[in-house]
Amino acid sequence: MTQTTPTPPTDEIRVAVSAVIFSVRGLSESACPVLALPLVRRTRDPFEGRWALPGGWLNAAENLDAAASRTLEETTALAPTYLEQLYAFGAVDRSPTRVVSVVYWALLRSDEVDAQVAAHAAAGDAPENVEWFAASELPALAFDHNEIVDYALWRLRNKVGYSRIANGLLPEQFTLADLREVTEAILGRRLDPANFRRQVENSNTLIPTDRFRTGNHRPARLYRYNRDVELAERGPLIAPR
Amino acid sequence: MTQTTPTPPTDEIRVAVSAVIFSVRGLSESACPVLALPLVRRTRDPFEGRWALPGGWLNAAENLDAAASRTLEETTALAPTYLEQLYAFGAVDRSPTRVVSVVYWALLRSDEVDAQVAAHAAAGDAPENVEWFAASELPALAFDHNEIVDYALWRLRNKVGYSRIANGLLPEQFTLADLREVTEAILGRRLDPANFRRQVENSNTLIPTDRFRTGNHRPARLYRYNRDVELAERGPLIAPR
């Protein structure tokens, strides 16, 4: 394979899709769960051998959302229930050829990831060249993918409310301590439990249930996320067509 | 000109940019100011004669942001200080040929619009086929542009805080009554002045100045927007490079 990068015709612009999939995972047996994302090792130029976001080319007969789901599934075997468009990256110099990448993102519960990985391992079609990386300790990625992950992290840390974190990363019912621990993994720092409880309760985005988790500690109330808030956040583009 | 639409090669996907520019304008001498946007009448197929969002094709040597500014300027002679990416629209059936449109949006003060329009009129290079329309009374637009405007309106009404409305649509200093009237034009309904004041004051996104506007009414304090909030909202993609 030649190492020279072919120069594209000046009028050629291609459209790709990529996905940033966040989950909170224990990446080794000893370590605490951290915010993590799956990357795919490139097997061809450009950037052969480097890690990159899962993705691929948009087909002419395929909607953007469908392309994002298809390429994510083909490269990682992951199938989130919902991918949201994050941003279109189109700097002229982001790739040796001219590529506009429409990037999607999703939050995925760790048990969903485990179940999907286990199903593919059992079927003998586990994807190759895929690994989960801690979001805070990424290597130098292909293209502008470090910049894309930085932007996704910024959106997650600044613009995603507790309701969506609860919906995306926690089971159907959860305690405020569960939510705080996941939020701490996202922010990469400890939060004061009393302040956190007050903020969540003031946000009106979670609904207390009548159930409690019991165990070694004193009983902790279980909450669920407020589906009305989440649907409103998604906006009119998500309406069924 | 033939009425048949040529079928593109199946692998051809083209990238366009469009812009939704919101301002609050009096569209006739008698009427109250309303939320409005400029549209361009199409002079060729497809959708010849219909109104469409300003925009055009992305050039291979041009970044997305630059293309959005250039095509907006070419079609409407408007030059907002800041265009923000809104969403990439890429449904297969949104155009007779396959086009992915990266849509930008901006808020523009009415006096800025007037000054830019007047400058071009004086220079004799005023754009043709451009008109401002009330956002609530749009005709059937070309392509999926009604859907795009609906999405932009949803974002404006649901996700844009008082700070950005103040920065985008009002002069440097303004009263809470000014801000309420612009917000009422955006929402298309009246707001309770006392509730509105309380919400704005609780949001901490505006800074009271020591100055007051005097006149027929009792003196009204002037506010300015909090630039720190606004820069934080824009996120890491806006960092100087």
UniProtKB/TrEMBL annotation, chains A, B:
<dbReference type="Pfam" id="PF21906">
    <property type="entry name" value="WHD_NrtR"/>
</dbReference>
<dbReference type="InterPro" id="IPR000086">
    <property type="entry name" value="NUDIX_hydrolase_dom"/>
</dbReference>
<dbReference type="InterPro" id="IPR015797">
    <property type="entry name" value="NUDIX_hydrolase-like_dom_sf"/>
</dbReference>
<dbReference type="Pfam" id="PF00293">
    <property type="entry name" value="NUDIX"/>
</dbReference>
<dbReference type="InterPro" id="IPR054105">
    <property type="entry name" value="WHD_NrtR"/>
</dbReference>
<dbReference type="InterPro" id="IPR036390">
    <property type="entry name" value="WH_DNA-bd_sf"/>
</dbReference>
<feature type="domain" description="Nudix hydrolase">
    <location>
        <begin position="12"/>
        <end position="157"/>
    </location>
</feature>
<dbReference type="InterPro" id="IPR036388">
    <property type="entry name" value="WH-like_DNA-bd_sf"/>
</dbReference>
<protein>
    <submittedName>
        <fullName>NUDIX domain-containing protein</fullName>
    </submittedName>
</protein>
